[in-house]
Amino acid sequence: MKRYGILFVALAFLLAGCKSTPQGPAVLTVMTHDSFSVSESVVANFEEQNNVDVQFLEIGDTGTAVNKAALSKDNPLADVFYGVDNTFLSRALEEDIFEVYQSPLLEEISPIFILDQSNRALPVDFGDVCLNYQKSYFIENDLPTPDSLEDLIHPDYEGLLTVQNPATSSPGLAFLMTTVGYYGQDGYLGYWEDLKANGVNIVNDWETAYYSSFSQAGGTDPIVVSYGSSPPFEVLFAEEPLDDAPTAAVTSPGTCFRQIEFVGILRGTTNREMAEKWIDYMLSPVFQEDIPLNMYVFPVNMNAVLDDTFQKYLEIPDITADITPDQIAENRETWINDWTETVLR
């Protein structure tokens, strides 16, 4: 009896480590930010191939998710964490929340997206935060389209721009960092003073900026901080078929900020093998090609094929804001606080 009891206990621990139920498949828990989205068929494909139930744990925005992962690192809430971006990458690495994993799929990813050489945080997708403008406004008003950050403080563009508050908005924070990268820490606040004097409109979130203030959606301002992907989405989601995108993104050197999102295996997982398989799947073309129409960002796998609309209307900047994750980690709160004092008070 004693021998059978020992075997039973050992079997119980083994099953617990695999996170399975007696009658069902193993369970893989993936922690994400609230903006995560993936097609059900793509998830089902992975589940069927691996006899696993993938459960998603949405924590909040990126900053909140990183904080919770750090606070729970001795008893991780999940097996995998997707969604830390380059504005919080240094914090995640300093907290040592990820285990090292060198996925074989990294060979299909451009080195420009691999910011963690230790392979704890692996790149999944990217998106460029850029100025967008309504083409027809500038044609009708015989005004050159904006092509630089300097244009926005010229008298001809007075009262034409809407941006988001960097303290409350991810694209707002990205645009603030664009100005830091472009003008330097000694010059960015002066630039914001000039924007303020030129009638910049500041709102709390991207939805308000794009769907209320932007003239393309019926607002008054023909320039808005949005994404490089916004023009092709204007075509894809138009109520009537369009021959051309009604908006365009400014992609001149240094005028966009590139957000890169990463995935990693949470330290202490008891489901390491399945976590590796899930990360390989996220980096594979099947998952990567599903990303754009669900999360409005773009694949890092060079073998993933984009929809024809993206290939036609998407403009990807050659040179984005020159600012590193370490600089962001060290100065993010200071930049936000100084911006608030300068612009809102």
Descriptive overview:
This protein is an alpha/beta fold and 345 residues long. The protein folds into 2 domains: 179 residues, D-Maltodextrin-Binding Protein, domain 2; 159 residues, Periplasmic binding protein-like II (D-Maltodextrin-Binding Protein, domain 2). Helix content is 39%, strand content 18%. It contains 14 helices and 11 strands. Strands 1, 2, 3, 4, 5, 6, 7, 8, 9, 10 and 11 form an 11-stranded mixed beta sheet that branches. Helix 2 links the parallel strand 1 and strand 2. It is globular, with a radius of gyration of 23 Å. 41% of the residues are buried.
Q: Notable features of this structure?
A:
345 residues, alpha/beta, D-Maltodextrin-Binding Protein, domain 2, 11-stranded mixed beta sheet, 39% helix, 18% strand, globular, disordered N terminus
Fold topology:
Layout (H helix, E strand, L loop, with lengths): L1 H17 L7 E7 L7 H11 L1 E7 L3 H10 L8 E6 L3 H7 L2 E2 L22 E13 H6 L20 E4 L5 H14 L4 H10 L3 E3 L2 H8 L9 E5 L2 H7 L10 E3 L7 E10 L5 H12 L1 H4 L3 H4 L2 E2 L8 H6 L11 H20 L1
Parallel strand pairs: 1-2, 1-3, 6-7, 6-8
Antiparallel strand pairs: 3-10, 4-10, 5-8, 5-9, 5-10, 5-11
Helix pairs in contact: 6-7, 7-14
Concise structural overview:
With 345 residues, this protein is of the alpha/beta class. The chain is built from 14 helices and 11 strands. Strands 1, 2, 3, 4, 5, 6, 7, 8, 9, 10 and 11 form an 11-stranded mixed sheet that branches.
